[in-house]
Amino acid sequence: MAIYPIRTFPDPVLHMEAAAVSSFDDDIARLVDDMLETMYEAPGVGLAAPQIGISKRVFVADIGEGPFVMINPEIVETTGKWKFEEGCLSVPGRYWQIKRHDFARAEGFDASGAPVSFEGDELLGRVLQHEIDHLNGLLLLSHLGVRTKKIVLKELREASLGIAKSI
Ligand code: NI
Question: Which tens digits make up the pLDDT trace of 126-138?
């Protein structure tokens, strides 16, 4: 088991579409273990492999009901809308009211390659959508309105460059 550093905006790996996992071997089992340890240490309710610099379609999550993993997950059904204050370990310390679907169902595979399906509304539905976004190279910033996004991107870029705000 190992704890990885978490990549933060604007690390390019967060903006890449992650590659599908083709073999469910010991390396994937180890990756899943390391991701769970890294997620609990953070702490976070979800973590996608690109957030530790590994561009593979794997995420782990635990919304307080025990850990689960999804490999090569796809959203197969969504309904409703729900606005909720959302954050991301890769954009630390920032939270926004973000509108997503309320209910989501995702299908994928576990670490042994067996098919799994998870579905839920509110927090679980949101985690499924948020983590699968990561695998498609999208951060929660992509759900902000155009004007807010422009301001936030500028703030984050300046922060990452260490540019102090003058007033
Ligand atoms: Ni995130």
Answer: 999 999 999 999 9
CATH of domain 12-159: 3.90.45.10
Q: Where are the domains of the chain?
A: 12-159
Q: Which residue has the tokens 């679907």?
A: 101
Residues composing the chain: 167
Q: Which residues are annotated as catalytic?
A: 131
Can you read off the two tokens belonging to residue 70? 């999804």
In this prediction, residue 162 carries a pLDDT of: 75
**Residue in the structure block whose two tokens are 């499924």:** 128
Contact 41, 52 (CB under 8 A): no
Three-class SS state of 111: coil
Determine the distance separating the centroid of ligand 1 and the alpha carbon of 121, expressed in angstroms: 18
